[in-house]
Amino acid sequence: MNLLKKIPKSLRIACLYLFPVVMLFPLFFLNNVYANASEIGENLGSAAGKTVGTAIGSLQGITKGNAAGLKDGKAEGLSAKDTTTDIMDIIEIGKLEVLVATTTIENFNSMGNDYAALYLLRGDVVFTVDLLQASFDTETDTLYIPQPMPTCYFDPVEIQKIAEYQKTFFSGSTEDGFTEYLNSLKQLEISFTDSIENYDNLLASAQTAAIHQVKQIAENMSVNSGQIHVKFLEHTQNER
Amino acid sequence: MASHNRSTKKFVIASLPVLLGTVMILASVNRFTQTVSAGAGAAQTAYHTSKDLEQQRIYTEYYEKSRAAAEKKYHTSNRAVISIDKVRESAELEVLQVQATGYSIEDKKDNHAATSWIKVTGKGIFTVNLSAGEYLIDQERHSVVIRIPKPQLTHFSPENTEKMVYEDGALNPIPEISFLNGSAGKGTDLAQRQISDASMDAKASITSNQRFCQSAEVSAEKMISNFVKEINKDIPDLMVTIEFTD
After folding, report:
1. Residues B148 and B31 in one domain
2. Lowest-confidence segment of A118-127, B18-27, B163-172 by average pLDDT
3. Which of A88, A238, B188, B244 is deepest in the core (most CB within 10 A)?
4. Chain A residue whose CA is closest to B241
């Protein structure tokens, strides 16, 4: 107390008034920090609400929801909504087969490093001319036909497994092998058709055969028994 | 009275800063609490965001690593060589395309490999051989009579194979433990046999269906007649007759 009295009165009063002034600084600082408090508070509330909601929801889900869902799901499942019916198409066509190439395909099939097999497949490549698109010019006795198009036929009955390698007796699983075979056959058909479509020599033979065969048939069917010329249409829309 | 006023003045001068200071402290404490609360909220949000991102990143890392390893282990390749054995000209007219399905059902009790049901859907093509036909032309009566063999199913091509039911034949199959799951060789044998059987079943369903044969005859008659009329379109009263021989 005596020590306090030694301080001049004016200084004591100044110190006393300095106290609230000093306290203004942390308040201003906290106000600045608090500027985004509402947004942060929303996040906090959302997170807390989610947690509480999850807890309550889980409890209700376990006690009531499971049973209700099971009942409704069973009814839905047994409703037989997943029913499809396919119409087996019957389509009238009028395509003349002009060239047939019998092929042998040797396929080396492998699955990783554990399994490999060599297959021998037989397939026919049939080139056809769509006579529904043919048109006859009576003035020049010329029959215009579309370009021959190839179709590939595999007979799965004739596929032979020539050789097989398995790293161990139990390499892979039956299901792996089963799935691998189905997928390989599908991919092989696609690849085979692509290769044939780009094989120009065979296409050239098919064009020659088309002209020859169509001419012969048309002349057989012509009442005027004159010579018939056969030419390819310039723009043909072939579809298989 | 003057002394009382002085003491009151002194009291006010002394207590005013104390009061102001106290208000500042209370306000600061209040702000501090609110700030800590807001900060905790932000931290929590950041925690969840970064946790989710990191969780996804780690999951993706493991997924990609496993996927690449599995792809390498099961990488299926086919290296095919096509040889053209024989090329011949043909004069078969395709007249009808039909779709058919065939099934193959095998049970693990019988084959000791797997219970497997597959469905093969394919298309069959009926053709008539025009080169084996007999063409009778009557120029005076404007008549064309064509005698050709009956349409035959000459091609069948499986277009889609569907695995309907599949269950490995092992007593207690455990994924990734291959010695309980048979072998890849057994699987390819089973698939080969079933596709073959289902294709034969589909083909048989076409040949045994009399309606398809009749439709093929109707279509052949129509296609050939139209073609003959196109070739002879300068003869409007042309009579075309198609006869099928056995």
Report:
1. no
2. B163-172
3. B188
4. A221
